[in-house]
Structures are given as C-alpha cells and as structure tokens.
Amino acid sequence: MTDPNVERKLVEIMRIISESDKPLGARLIADELHNRGYAIGERAVRYHLRILDERGFTQKHGYIGRTITERGKKELNDALVSDRFGFVITRIEELMYKADYNPESGKGNVIVNITNVDKDDYEDVTDIIRYTMDHGATISPKVGIIEEDTDLDIYVPEGKVAIATVCSITFDGLLLKSGVPVVPIYGGLIEMQDHSPACFLDLISYSGTSIDPIKIFLRRRSTSILEAIDTGNGKMLANVRQIPESAAQKASEILEKAKKAEISGHITIGDTGEDILCAPIERGKVGIPVMVGINSVAAVEEVGFKVDTNPVSAVMEYSKMKKL
Fold this sequence. Notes:
By secondary structure, the chain is an alpha+beta fold. The chain has helices at 4-18, 26-35, 42-55, 70-78, 87-98, 122-134, 169-177, 213-220, 225-231, 248-260, 295-303, and strands at 58-60, 66-68, 109-118, 142-146, 160-166, 183-193, 196-205, 234-244, 285-291, 308-317, 322-323.
C-alpha cells in the first residue's frame, strides 16, 4: 500500500496517458502534470511509471513511451474525482508543516508559487512583476529565479525560467509554528475600491475542490490587477483563513513581526464570528484575509504573456530569494 499522495499522482498519470492517442514519455507527462497543478519532475514521473508498469496498468513501448492497458482503464474508471477531492487542502497542510521561516532571524523556508515563463519574455515579465510588487499587490518583494537543470526539486521545462513568488499560505505556516490553530478556508476574488479591499465577489472553499481555487480564478482571467493599481478600482486575488477567537491577539503580533521582515499583505483581522469582507466565518472564530502572492503573475497574464503557474507549489529558503 503506497502513500495516498502517491496514489493520487498515479491516477492522474493514468488519466494523462489515457487521453493521448499515442504513447507518452516521462517529459511530456511531467509537463502536463504541472498544467494540472502537480509539482513533480521528470525523474519522479519515471518512478511512478515503474509502479504502474508493475501493477499492469501501463505498458512500455521502448523509448517511445507508455500506453494504458485494459486493466489500467478499468482501474481509472473506478478512480472517481473523490480521489482528488480534498487533495488541495491536504497539499496545503503538508507545506504549512514544512514552512519554518523565522521572521526574527530571517531564515527558514517559505511556501512559494512557481511560474514558468519563456526565456525570451523573462525581462518583460519581471518588469511587470516588479511593478506590482512596488505597489503592494503581493505579499513580498522577493522572488526566486530557477533555471533549467537546477539541483532544486523543482522541475523547469526546456526553454523556460521559473519564478518563485512567496505564497500567502506562508502566513498559515507562521501561525501554525507559533501554536495558533489555523485553517485556510477560501480563495477568492476581491473588489478594490479607492485602493482598499471592499468585498469578496467570489469565493471557493479549499476543502471542497479538487483544483486550487486561486488557479481557477487565474484560468478565468478574472482579475484587473493593473487597473486596481493605477486607478484604485479593480479586482485582485486574496484568500481567507480562520483561527480561534482566543488566538487573535497572538496572531496579530506574529503578522506584525512578519511585516517587519517584508512579508506582508494581510488585510485585517476580523471580529469573532463576523463576516470578513463578505466572507462567512464560523462562530467562535475570526477571519484573516490576505492578498495572494500570485497577484503579480495575474498582472502578467492581463498584459497577454503566456505563463504556466502552480500555486502553493513548494518551499524555498527565504534568505536565498532576492528583490528584482
């Protein structure tokens, strides 16, 4: 019996192979997995393919690639969407645990989003990202730049450069490490009026989806980040977490420490059991909305550049990230 996370990846790999009309190799499978929100490299794909071969679910055709077998098709038909339902929040909780950044020492891992851009577009893309960061649309002015064939466990497709932006779920990691019980509950689209957050227009629950909510809004091209920066009115991406009422004061202190270390973006801390910017909160809990680090990438897509983004993708040492 393998790890549930491994099983989910095996199912997704079988889906990808079954959707192709020709054998697929590990590189193409890895590329498509990234498109579907799985941060997994070519080497790891080969490991998963060996498991599928051993189970008789896939068949290898020399160096050409794999096809799915009849046995694999039956297994895939039995693997309903419930295999991935709730996987997003499970992945978030895993990275929250791995994030160990200490605002006082300036060291430790933060959670990052990974965006792959064409090398030819790199300078123009980073100009836009810098502009959004300078105007406070994201949570940190620092990024990580990852080239092909890096020794990091982050897959970068050929001809691309990966840009790591600090993910807002880093706040949840900070709270968790400080003993504050925290649960990310929504990703959403928030309306900006006169340069201030007014109300969430759309919300998707992290626990009720098989796709990251922020990625859904990115695919919809729902934002108007640059308009919000230039005019004060527009639509940005944010998410909401909730904590017990008794932990509100401690959470406020932690977020202020993070702000001094250039990790900011939390909008406010709500009142007990009260809606926060139109987002419902449970009784006895308080809500904390935070702008997401991917706002800078959404602005890049608004201009028309084609990028591939995976929210809540990995952890990275914050001290190694730099300002553009």
